[in-house]
Specification:
Blueprint: H1 25-50, H2 55-90, H3 95-108
Amino acid sequence: MEDIVKEDVCHTEGATSCRKSHHPERVKKDLTTRLNRIEGQIRGIKGMIEKDVYCDDVITQLSATQSALNSVAKILLEGHLKGCVVDRLSEGDDAVLDELVVTIQKLMKK
């Protein structure tokens, strides 16, 4: 995973909270490429189901796709932590910690 620095994401430009991310083009391109690949994997899995491919092979592809989705989530979480969360904490907004706990709980359900 590429190291993301605070300046790379979630610029608020005077806003009191970070409700919109502003990823640099290189991060957007990386995420888009990853998501396009995942989209292709999903279409491939659908085709496998339609062709009655052996269940274990389908499950293997599902696992690979979930791993790819988790990688996207990790990149987004890192950017969120280094951008939005740091900014909101520096502004005295401790509510971001409760939001972060909920977000991490959502990710851990997988």
